[in-house]
């Protein structure tokens, strides 16, 4: 029993140098991406279309509904204890700093991580990756980097839309719920947004996007020969992305509170 546990631990950590090298290779190629051929840029555009544009309606509706619900119930509760002015700090803390990046990352993971991993896994089993290499095309430059940049930028921009709709959407709802309370809503809301909250939200969105893209492409390339490994790669990409996002979220929260 102990020997099996030790073997599994050794096997797990033996892949760490490879993963770090894989991440470093992606970062290096991302810096030089602007010099790549037009074909790779088309892959980036398609990834932005699928991950950002197609997910935008879901994010907008969800964020507006969430922000409005928080405002309606939160303001009623805080007003009952004489702290109605805290609703603005509560909205910025929950919508912009905490739930915004996390919910967007979960939505992108559910939509894109499986698609990327299964797509790349299918290319491995059909020997398309070997064809790229034989033609002198680097799979990292052509396949991974556009998806890495596309997913990372998509999470970043989706988080901006989530924060905007989640914070300013309740301004319309407040007109119907309590027109008196809506007076000065925007000015009070803008005063409650601190630089730390804004930077934390931006950092989270970028880190979460990197985790999703790196994890999904890594497990997509990990497929070996059998086509039955492709759906397994998709499941691993989603589950490991969720774990990585949660761990990164906790680390960023702790660092931002120091």
Describe this structure in words.
The protein is mainly α. It has a domain at 26-56 and 93-161 and 193-256. The chain is built from ten helices and no strands. It has helices at 2-14, 16-31, 38-53, 56-80, 87-125, 128-134, 139-177, 185-192, 195-221, 229-256. The protein is elongated. 34% of the residues are buried. The mean pLDDT is 84.
Ends apart, CA distance between termini: 41 Å
Q: What letter string, H or E per element, gives the SSE order?
A: HHHHHHHHHH
Strand % is: under 5%
Bulk shape: elongated
Helix content: over 70%
| Low-pLDDT ranges | none
Q: What count of helical segments does DSSP give?
A: 10
The main sheet comes to: none
Q: What's the overall average pLDDT, rounded?
A: 84
By DSSP, the count of extended strands is 0
Q: What structural class is derived from the secondary structure elements?
A: mainly alpha
User: What is the subunit arrangement here?
Assistant: single chain
Question: What is the CA-atom radius of gyration, in angstroms?
Answer: 22 Å
Short summary of the structure?
The chain has 258 residues and is mainly alpha-helical. It has helices at residues 2-14, 16-31, 38-53, 56-80, 87-125, 128-134, 139-177, 185-192, 195-221, 229-256. It is built from ten helices and no strands.
Write the layout of secondary structure elements.
Layout (H helix, E strand, L loop, with lengths): L1 H13 L1 H16 L6 H16 L2 H25 L6 H39 L2 H7 L4 H39 L7 H8 L2 H27 L7 H28 L2
Helix pairs in contact: 2-7, 3-7, 4-5, 4-7, 5-7, 5-8, 5-9, 5-10, 7-9, 9-10
């Amino acid at each position: 029993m102990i020997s099996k546990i030790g073997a599994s631990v050794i096997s797990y950590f033996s892949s760490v140098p490879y993963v770090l090298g894989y991440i470093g290779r992606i970062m290096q190629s991302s810096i030089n991406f602007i010099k790549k051929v037009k074909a790779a840029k088309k892959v980036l555009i398609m990834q932005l279309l699928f991950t950002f544009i197609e997910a935008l309606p879901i994010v907008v509706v969800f964020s507006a509904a969430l922000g409005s619900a928080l405002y309606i119930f939160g303001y009623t509760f805080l007003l009952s204890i004489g702290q109605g002015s805290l609703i603005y700090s509560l909205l910025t803390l929950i919508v912009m700093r905490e739930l915004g990046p996390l919910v967007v990352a979960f939505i992108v993971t559910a939509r894109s991580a499986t698609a990327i991993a299964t797509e790349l896994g299918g290319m491995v089993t059909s020997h398309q990756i070997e064809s790229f290499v034989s033609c002198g095309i680097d799979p990292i430059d052509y396949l991974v980097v556009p998806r890495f940049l596309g997913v990372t930028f998509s999470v970043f921009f989706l988080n901006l839309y989530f924060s905007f709709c989640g914070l300013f959407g309740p301004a319309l709802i407040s007109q119907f719920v309590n027109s008196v309370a809506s007076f000065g809503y925007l000015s009070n809301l803008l005063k409650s947004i601190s630089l730390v909250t804004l930077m934390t939200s931006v950092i989270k969105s970028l880190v979460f996007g990197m985790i999703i893209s790196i994890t999904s492409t890594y497990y997509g390339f990990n497929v070996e020969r059998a086509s039955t490994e492709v759906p397994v790669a998709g499941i691993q990409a989603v589950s490991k992305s969720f774990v990585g996002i949660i761990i990164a979220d906790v680390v960023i929260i702790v660092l931002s509170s120091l």
